[in-house]
Write a structure and sequence with these properties.
Elements (H helix, E strand, L loop, with lengths): L4 H12 L11 E2 L3 E2 L1 H11 L8 H7 L1 E3 L9 E4 L9 E7 L2 E4 L8 E4 L3 H6 E6 L2
Amino acid sequence: FSNNENLREEIVNTAKQYIGVNYRWGGQSGSTGFDCSGLTMVVYGQNGLKLPRSSKQQWKIGKPVDLGQLLKGDLVFFATTGGKKVSHVGIYIGDNKFLHAPGRGRDIRVSSLSNQYFKSRYLGARTYL
């Protein structure tokens, strides 16, 4: 796990190209839309990294990272359906912000980890680099 800064920048830059793309359940395409884990899988794939398809699997294979140690390109995970089960994932882009596909009817966007909704549902982060 190197701190590969160039690769981390590339992951963030790749992800930013999809801001404004539609959310689509099961989606994994920039032209038709993404769901949260489809977005992370495709962005990583475009940068030569293989991720599993679901957020739960992505959570399992990543190496845990503390909130204070987050680096660009790490994935942040949330329990948005209640409990402590992974149900949402986004890409950390720096400055306490992450890029994600929020859900039906909403476009891919950047949100803040300080936002009360996400703060209260935050489960942790993982790195794959």
